[in-house]
Amino acid sequence: MEQNAEYRQRQMQEYKREVMPLLKYIPWFEKNAGQAGSTLYQGDEKDANALSFPVYDPALMSFVKEAAGSPLMDRNYRYVYTRGRIRSHEDERRVIAAAELKDWDVLRGILSRYVLGGRTKGNLWSEAAKEGIFLMVLKQMQKIIEFWDKPLEIR
C-alpha cells in the first residue's frame, strides 16, 4: 500500500511539472470564453484576390507554443478519439468533465489534437478556444492534481 501512495505522489509531481506552465493561461481563456482568439486578415480593398488568413491573439499563440513544447503532447492522439468514440465537441466536453486520474492520457490526447493538429489545420486553435476545450482540459487537469495532492499556486 505504501508503494502505491509513493507512486501516486511521484506521478502527481510529474503531472504538476508538466501542466503548471500552462495553467497561467486559464484566466485568459475564461476572459475570452466563446471567442475564437483570432481574426481574419483580408488585405486591403484594392486587392480582391488577396488570400485571407487568421491572425491569432498573442496569448493564444503563446499558449500553443508552450503546450507544443511540453511533455503533455501525444502524437498518437487519434487513438484517444477512436478508442473513446469521440466525434464531436459534445463528446469531448463529456469525456473531459468525467476524466479522473486514470484518464490523464485522454486529456493529453484531446489537448494534443488541437495543439498539434492546429499546425496543419489553422482553425483548430481558434476552434478549441471558442468551444472552451483548452479551458476545460486545463481546469480538469488542475482539478485532478488538486484532488490527489494539494491546491496549486498559479502565478
List the helices and strands and how they pair.
Layout: H1 2-23, H2 26-31, E1 38-41, E2 53-56, H3 58-68, H4 77-83, H5 89-98, H6 104-117, H7 123-131, H8 133-148
Antiparallel strand pairs: 1-2
Helix pairs in contact: 1-8, 4-6, 5-8, 6-7, 6-8
Mind explaining what this structure looks like?
With 155 residues, this protein is mainly alpha-helical. The protein is 61% helix and 5% strand. The chain is built from eight helices and two strands. It has a two-stranded antiparallel sheet. Helix 1 runs antiparallel to helix 8 and helix 4 (77-83) packs across helix 6 (104-117). The longest helix has 22 residues, at 2-23. The protein is elongated.
**Strand order, biggest sheet?**
1-2
What is the strand tally? 2
Radius of gyration: 17 Å
Reading the helices and strands in chain order gives HHEEHHHHHH
Short summary:
The chain is mainly alpha-helical and 155 residues long. The chain has helices spanning 2-23, 26-31, 58-68, 77-83, 89-98, 104-117, 123-131, 133-148; strands spanning 38-41, 53-56. Helix content is 61%, strand content 5%.
